[in-house]
Design brief:
single chain; 423 residues; alpha+beta; conserved putative lor/sdh protein from methanococcus maripaludis s2 fold; 4 domains; six-stranded mixed β-sheet; six-stranded antiparallel beta barrel; 22 strands
Length: 423
Amino acid sequence: MIRDTSAQDRPLSTPVARPRRRIGVVVALALAALAAVAAPQARRLLGTADSVSADRLVVAEVTRGAFERDIQAEGRVVAAFSPTLFAPAAGAVTLQVHAGDTVRQGQVLATIASPELAARLAQESAAADGLQTDTLRAQVDASEQRLALQGTRETAAIDVQAAQNDLARQQKAFEAGAASGMQVDHAKDALEKARIALAHAEANLHSRDDSLRFDVRAKEQAHARQALLVQDLRRQVDELAVRSPVDGQVGQLLVAERASVARDAQLLTVIDLSRFEVQVQVAEGFARELAVGMPGEISGNGRSWPGKVSAVSPEVVNGEVAARLRFDGAMPGELRQNQRLGVRVLLDRRADVLSVPSGNFIEQGGGASAYVLRDGLAEKTAVRLGARGVDRVEVLSGLKPGDRVVVAGADNFHGAPRVAVAQ
């Protein structure tokens, strides 16, 4: 027999316990590391009242940069000038146009029959003619009286000259011994008397001339007043033909044909299609900051035009205020009434401002708090907000750049101070 090696073989022991021990050590170390990492998170989770899915939240980041406060809304194209025409006097209306008719400036749109005004014009015109006749008569009378007074004055002047000549003859005769001294004295008295009569004639001429001139002036003024009254009445009669103040289109007829209307009654409206503005409804909160002359932008049909605020209504209706913008420059020619256009009005522009996108968190927290995401937790943080734009709000304190703020969906937290956010 061939001898085998069985006598040389011996069983070896398998080292089972050592690998198991190594695995246990590795697992223990891993659990310890995991516990060390998760301990702070676990402590935070234990302090939360609830857990909310991140899909139900809208989160935005706080940034620092340029901040603009503006108003953006949809506006409606309206006529800048659409006057309403009124009846200048009471009477029956005859319309010359229909609604929608194109009219030119000065075109007669309606006429009003007013017999009372026509009769009064005729009466006052007759009175004016009578006063004009009185004025002419006064002028003739004044001329005649002035001529008579002038004749009296010239006669007195001739009497003075005759008295002077007679005195000179008497003196020569007295010196020659042909006349007595009594005759010379009588000639001197006659000369003095003639001079007094001349002085009175001249004074009477001047005083009567002033009086006659005043009488004629009074007649002329009375006629002028009456002429102004007649002129005003003629203007009122001319206004009975109601004319268009602008080139445009008849908007709305406010009375029926042949209707009897009172003075200042509305007749019709005219739309000036050459000048358009854009009317926009602005929330009352922003309307307080609007002012006439603020720059804006009007956009539509893929184009934009510069504009300026032209008017802001003082009346608040349903929490909104009506404002108008006019085109700052050449007005586009393709506009039409009631066309919809976008409007943007810049209220304020500043650089290096800390801000966050707007959201309903402002109303929910009253603007005094916000939820900030840190390490999977939404923590309620006190904040102080400033100016508000259309899409962003200024942050004054409580937040820093890079903070992630829950801007929508914070109502799911129910006001809890700390809430876990599940990804």
